[in-house]
Amino acid sequence: MSAEPSTRGLPLRVTGVTAGYGGDPVIRNVSVRAEPGEVVSLVGANGSGKSTLLKSLVGVVRVTAGTVVVGETDVTRKAPEEVARAGVGYVPQVDDVFAPLTVRENLEMGGYLLPARQVRARIDEVTVIFPRLAAMLSRPAGKLSGGERKMLAMGRVLMLQPSVFLLDEPTANLAPAIARTLLEEHVRQLAANGASVLVVEQRARAVLAISDRTYVLAGGEVRMEGTPAELAGSPAFVESFLGGTVTR
Question: What pTM was estimated for this model as a whole?
C-alpha cells in the first residue's frame, strides 16, 4: 500500500452507557474503550445491541445514562455534527454512500465541515489511501461494487481526518475474500495510522484476526471481553462464535 497520512488519535471511553429508542433500553450499563492505534471489535448475535451502541455514541440514539468521552471531550448526548467535530467518524451499515452522486461528490459531502479550499487537497489524500477510488471520481456511487462502496464510505468519513472510527458491519454483503481484504488492509490500516477503531462485525473469526481486544455483547450487555487469544481459550466463546470447541 502507499504511504498514508497519519491521524492524531484520541482515546474513546464509554462508561456505563444505557440507551434505546424509547421504552425499555436496548443496551444497559455498557462500558468499552479504544486506544489510539487499536482495533477493538464488538461481536454478538443479531439483536444484541451492537449497532445501537454505535448509534448511541454518535448521538443518533438517545443515551439515558453513562458517558461517552473522546480524548478529554464529553460528547454524551451531543448532536451528530458536534460528535463529528470532536473527531469521531461513523460508517453505518446501510445508507453509507449517496448512490446518485459521483465518488467525488460523495467525498465532497464528507468534507462538509472543511473550508472549501481544503476539500480538493483532502480528496487527493483520501485517494492515496484508497487508490481504486482515484480512477472512479466521476462514477456514480450506485455503480460501484460492494467492496468499492465500502471503500468510498470509509473515504468519505476520512475526509475529516477523525481520531476515532466507528464502523458498523463494514463487511456486510461482501464476498469472503473481499471482506478479509477490507478488514486486513483498510480497517487495520486506520489504526496503524494512529486512529482508535471500534468495529461491529458479524464475521467473528475474521475480525478477531485484526483485533487487539474484543467485547462480546448479549442481551444489550457486555458479557465477555479480552484479547482474541484470551477469548479463543473460552469454550463458551468458541462454541458460540467460532463454530468449534476448545481443545485442551
Answer: 0.89
